[in-house]
Amino acid sequence: MRTSYVIGVLGVLALWGCGSDSTAPAATLSDVQISADLAASTAPAVATNASVFLGAEVGSGASSASMVRAAGTATCTVNSASGLMTFSAESHPDSISFTRTWEYFSDAGCENAFDAAATDSIAFTASLLEVDNDPRFVARATSAWQLDVIGAPTLAGATTHVWNGAGTDADTATHQTPGLDRTYSGAAFDTAANVTFPHPLNGATVPSSGTFTRWMTVTVTHTTHGVHKVQTTSRHIVVTFNGATQVPLVVLDDSTGAHLLTCTLDLTARRLIENSCH
Q1: 70 falls within a domain
Q2: Is residue 1 part of a domain?
């Protein structure tokens, strides 16, 4: 079985420091507004990752996930695919360009093909370019992920499929509000922990449990009455899956863990529920 990538990469979190102001912000751009903006632009990214897992479960049939690869073996077949996905009925729909590679594993090591009697994990890398077009903001992100899915005793015979992984993102998001236009640019480190689907799915379209966690540091440029202000800030965002299409998204202070904001994310709509943040 291929082990989860999460334990090996958590040390990267130590590299993230606390943000500090490079220029004093205008009074009209509050910490609450920043948290709300970052929650809104994170929502589609979370929905994207949930749909990536679901697409693997559905697209490969009942027994395996079809878009994965482990890093660094030369003895087994490495599979690859690329494509473009679009979402929503908006005039400018969200889009995701992706490339992915995958490889199969059993207790004996990597395999050249899926084996229903032996394959117990599949690992993959994925590179994504995501563009989200919301009437309130436009976000663009490039992501690189390493993930794996496991099932016991095998993926074919398991009652659940469990996903774990880690990714890095470079993001920009522009929010336009009369008198307070603002653009965010920065980086994020993401983890998916024990994101679980029933097997077989039996109609399930969202994870039954697990978490998505994002640590992000961004530089905010905002314009008030023609005056540009710049500040740098960090946030910790946690989404908890629960089998429902609407799930809690919590924004925390990255250094103290203090609660800043809770919103409701609609995984199907790929957006926060309007007026759900408090």
Answers
A1: yes
A2: no
> Virtual CA dihedral for 243, 91, 186, 273, nearest 10 degrees?
-40
DSSP string, 16-81: ------SSPPPTTS-HHHHHHHHHHHHHHHHHHHHHHHHHHHHHT-SS--SS---SS-SSS--EEE
Which residues neighbour 27 within 8 Å (Cβ) at sequence distance 6 or greater? none
Where in the sequence is the domain holding 60, given as residue range(s)?
19-272
Domains: count for the chain: 1
Measure the CA dihedral 145/259/132/212, to 10°: 30
Structural domain contains residue 60 = yes
Reported in sequence order, the residue ranges of 51-180 that DSSP labels E, i.e. its strands, are: 79-87, 94-106, 109-111, 121-134, 137-150, 160-175
In the block, tokens 């039996």 appear at 202
Q: Is the pTM here over 0.85, yes or no?
A: no
For residue 85, pLDDT over 60 is answered with: yes
Of all residues in the chain, what percent carry a pLDDT higher than 70? 82
